[in-house]
Amino acid sequence: MDSEEKGIDITTLKPEHQIAVEVLTRICDCMEQNAYPVVRDVQGAYLNIEIMGDDMRSTYGRFGASLDALQLISNTIVARRTRGDVRVILDAGGYRERRIETLTERALEMAKAVKEHNQEAEMEPLPPHERRIIHTILMEDPDIRTYSEGEEPNRRIVVSPR
Amino acid sequence: MQQLIEYLVKELVDEPEQVVITEVPQEDATTYEVRVAPNDLGKVIGKQGRIANALRTVAKAAAMKHKRKIYVEIIA
């Protein structure tokens, strides 16, 4: 197995993160898809884990909802098991990466339209981590500003001319 | 499938030995009935049903390759 498949060596992680990987391993073992977790990145409390296995793209990689649901349950279980602050971010079938591309495209299109018509426009509701991606991308554009409106789970971004 | 639901539910509750998952096959779908200790009900349902909904979504995703409709019902 090459390093691409194995990711970060689990034994080098702090104990709370090791517990998180154990939980994800148990979940994967129940999945009937030859699934296993690979640790891609550690940033403070955040642990980026990719779930590898058969048909991951069609089961978890196609819609964010199933991945977000698995992430919520995993984090709830890990929080029960650890005292420390651990946040698991899950990916499968390259979903998050493709999603960043899509969101970037949508954000730039939106910014262009807002400037052309000099009129503010609203995006569809998005989860917090996806809204943050859009805010960050559009922060670089001096001609527009972004803010969020509404309550979760219907909270959405408004792009407005400056 | 039952194994996945059972593991997740048992990890979410304080009394895992009280967890019972029953598979109820129907013609066009399978229902998984989840029973937990009364004190654990809130942990499986979550605020505004978030955990219960997430359990349903995860189970549905896992069932996709079997092309089978499944339901997860939490029985009080």
Structural topology:
The complex is a heterodimer of chains A (about 160) and B (about 80).
Chain A: H1 3-6, H2 15-29, E1 36-43, E2 46-52, H3 56-59, H4 64-81, E3 87-92, H5 95-117, E4 121-122, H6 128-139, E5 144-149, E6 156-161
Helix pairs in contact in A: 2-4, 5-6
Chain B: H1 2-12, E1 20-25, E2 29-35, H2 41-45, H3 50-63, E3 69-75
Parallel strand pairs in B: 2-3
Antiparallel strand pairs in B: 1-2
Query: Pairing-aware structural class of the strands and helices of chain B?
Result: alpha+beta
CATH architecture of chain B: 2-Layer Sandwich
Largest sheet, strands/sense/barrel of chain A: 3 strands, mixed
Which sequence of strands runs across the widest sheet of chain B?
A: 1-2-3
Secondary-structure-based class of chain A equals alpha+beta
**Count of individual domains of chain A:** 2
What overall geometry of chain A do the principal axes of the alpha carbons give? Answer: elongated
**CATH H-level superfamily of chain B:** K homology (KH) domain
Cα radius of gyration of chain A in angstroms: 18 Å
CATH hierarchy: architecture of the largest domain in chain A: 2-Layer Sandwich
Query: What count of structural domains of chain B?
Result: 1
Stated plainly, the CATH topology of the largest domain in chain A is called GMP Synthetase, Chain A, domain 3
Radius of gyration of chain B: 12 Å
- For this structure, the CATH topology of chain B is GMP Synthetase, Chain A, domain 3
The ordered H/E elements of chain A are: HHEEHHEHEHEE
